[in-house]
Design goal:
The chain is α/β, with parallel strands linked by helices. The protein is built from 17 helices and 21 strands. The chain has helices at about 70-75, 130-135, 155-160, 195-200, 205-215, 220-230, 290-295, 310-315, 350-355, 360-370, 390-395, 405-415, 435-450, 465-470, 490-495, 505-515, 520-540, and strands spanning about 1-5, 15, 45-50, 85, 90-95, 100-105, 110-115, 145, 145-150, 175, 250-255, 260-265, 280-285, 300, 320-335, 425-430, 450-460, 475-480, 540-555, 560, 580. α13 (about 435-450) links the parallel β16 (about 425-430) and β17. The longest helix has 18 residues, at about 520-540. It is globular, with a radius of gyration of 23 Å. The two termini are about 35 Å apart. The relative contact order is 0.19.
């Protein structure tokens, strides 16, 4: 599942997106489930959870190849920012790390203050230098030849904040000045990785690294950038040396059994409230095996794929488990491959034919409505059916032409284009029962129209060097997981952006995003969203299908587990989990 980028800070099948401040500090920000338990917990405080089968990739989860909900479920427990998301997408301050204040709107200037006691797990002070690193790896103006020096999933801050964080590199206070207003300024990534480690691995002192970054000296930063890009990627089962991976959150890496689990252990130097459990074991379990593992006690918390069978199985466990259901900000979609030479890249008519034969209503009725009876076919990308502006946006951008399957219309297009029998490989991250079912339904319908649909599900689809990265597909089936941020879609749909995996490009879409992303006016956001949605429908960038129903579960004796609508998933407040006393 890929995570959806948070403005210039976070993208699901892998989910794609960015919630880099997403790990909550200890305690319950909403007042309805947190806290440490008052000393009533049992002695065994090892808690096991699974969000899916995908193995750990890297301590650096901020590259396009490593940025997924599966990897973020681990690294976001270790790496904190100045804000995090509540269960409904509300932005909340992480007061453990520090504070921030909007000191001017024109120009937009924000002042950040890092807490005096905030340190990395190796004891090094968290300072302004770490904010400079966060700015540098999101600065596309630091280049090696024609390419950005840092391979970051977010690549806007060099333009949005041209001068970077201002303040003593060894100090605790810095300011940032935006070139234009940014409606998502609160969730920008200003803290993530340790500057002192990146600098040392690049043959620099921390002060030299900061100076080179501020001066735009790409040559001096080359080795440091290469380490940031690849130095934390290791062989499965082999953790980096501990001195290379200090953390600023409540957990640190403990052990890694390739293909099985990563164990997180408490960071004894954490400056906030310590984790309520002794270890958090993140297991890599196939979706179809999660309920049985929960029943057996092999797992304590699960995020299975929401299916009719899964819900029925969980309900059959009775009072052994708690079921967490609700709306989510994650949505399923089919994306066309626009890479030159691909079947659909320069042929809008064939994209229309495919859209005509995809049985979206059947998919929703068979797979989603049994879990959420109010579920409906999704006809937008930036707003959800349960949000106030959904109807207005859809009315302005979509005319309903793909609501009903039109086999004869699709067949006529294929014949006219001389494409009868054209092979369409639908790629997704496998195994995934619900996506396999979707592909089977699409094949049954679209083969009748004249396509040859091929199930190209692959365990490595979203892995570095995998099928998606190689472009070996005609249509990708996955989901984006968001958190209600305003400008995140720009990183997906605008030309050349890091999460624009399909090589789509439309100058009108780019311009609309620029207008939206530089305004604080909600009316401007709404009107530009309508324009963007219409253009994406007119071009058939892809086909939205449905918003994911939330379905997580936990053993009845695990306290403080709480579902969330955001991309952070069920593990968002894992440090507060504890096993109740028997």
């Amino acid at each position: 599942m890929r995570l959806k980028r948070i403005s210039t800070a976070v993208a699901a099948g892998a989910i794609l997106g960015l919630a880099l401040s997403a790990c909550a500090p200890e305690g319950d920000p909403n007042g309805d489930g947190g806290g440490g338990g008052g000393g009533t917990a049992a002695e065994n405080q090892s808690i096991s959870a699974s969000v899916g089968p995908n193995d750990f990739i890297s301590y650096n989860g901020f590259t396009p190849e490593t940025y997924s909900t599966y990897n973020s479920a681990i690294v976001d427990r270790m790496q904190l920012g100045f804000t995090y998301f509540g269960t409904d997408g509300e932005i909340l301050p992480n007061e453990d790390l520090g504070s921030f204040e909007l000191v001017s709107e024109d120009p937009m200037v924000i002042e950040y203050t890092i807490a005096d006691d905030a340190v990395w797990s190796d004891g090094t002070q968290i300072t302004v230098a770490d904010a400079v690193l966060a700015w540098a790896f999101q600065n596309p103006n630091l280049k090696s030849g024609d390419e950005p020096l840092f391979n970051s999933v977010s690549a806007d801050l060099g333009d949005e904040v041209p001068e970077g964080p201002q303040g003593d590199a060894e100090g605790k206070t810095f300011t940032v000045e935006f070139a234009a207003p940014n409606p998502d300024w609160q969730i920008q990534t200003w803290m993530l990785h340790p500057a002192h480690v990146v600098a040392e691995q690049g043959g620099l002192t921390t002060e030299e690294f900061v100076e080179a970054a501020r001066d735009g000296d790409a040559e001096a930063l080359a080795d440091a950038a290469e380490f940031w890009n690849t130095g934390w990627h290791t062989d499965p089962g082999t953790l980096p040396d501990e001195e290379l991976v200090p953390v600023n959150g409540p957990y640190k890496l403990g052990s890694w059994e390739a293909g099985q689990s990563v164990t997180l252990v408490p960071n004894e130097n954490y400056y906030g409230e310590l984790a309520a459990n002794d270890e958090l074991v993140m297991r890599f379990v196939d979706q179809g095996a999660m309920v049985q593992a929960l029943d057996n006690g092999d797992l304590d918390v699960i995020a299975p794929q929401p299916t009719v069978d899964t819900l029925s199985q969980l309900e059959g466990l009775g009072d052994k488990v708690n079921i967490h259901q609700g709306d989510t900000l994650t949505w399923e979609h089919l994306d066309f491959n626009f890479t030159e030479g691909s079947l659909f890249s320069d042929n809008l008519e064939l994209r229309k034919a495919f859209a005509m034969c995809v049985p979206r209503q059947q998919i929703v009725e068979n797979l989603i409505q049994p879990i959420n009876p109010e579920a409906e076919v999704l006809n937008a990308r930036e707003v959800f059916p349960f949000q106030d502006t959904y109807g207005e946006v859809v009315d302005a951008s979509y005319d309903g032409q793909y609501d009903e399957v039109d086999i004869e219309g699709a067949k006529a297009i294929l014949e006219a284009e001389g494409a009868d029998g054209a092979e369409v490989r639908i790629g997704y991250s496998a195994p995934n029962p619900r996506r396999s079912d979707q592909v089977a339904m699409i094949k049954s319908s679209c083969d009748e129209a004249g396509f040859d649909i091929v199930d190209a599900g692959d365990a490595d689809f979203f892995q570095p060097g995998g099928t998606q990265e190689r472009g070996d597909y005609e249509v990708a089936l996955f989901a984006w997981a968001g958190s209600g941020q305003i400008t995140s879609g720009e990183n997906i749909y605008a030309t050349g952006k890091p999460q624009n995996y399909t090589d789509y490009s439309n100058e009108e879409v780019d311009a609309a995003w620029r207008t939206l992303a530089t305004s604080l006016d909600e009316s401007v956001h709404l009107e530009q969203t309508k324009e963007i949605e219409k253009l994406l429908w007119d071009d058939l960038f892809g086909i939205p299908i449905f918003a994911h129903p939330g379905l997580d579960s936990s053993a009845a004796n695990i306290e403080n587990v709480e579902g969330t609508a955001t991309q952070d998933g069920i593990v968002w407040n894992a440090p507060t989990w504890q096993r109740a006393a028997e």
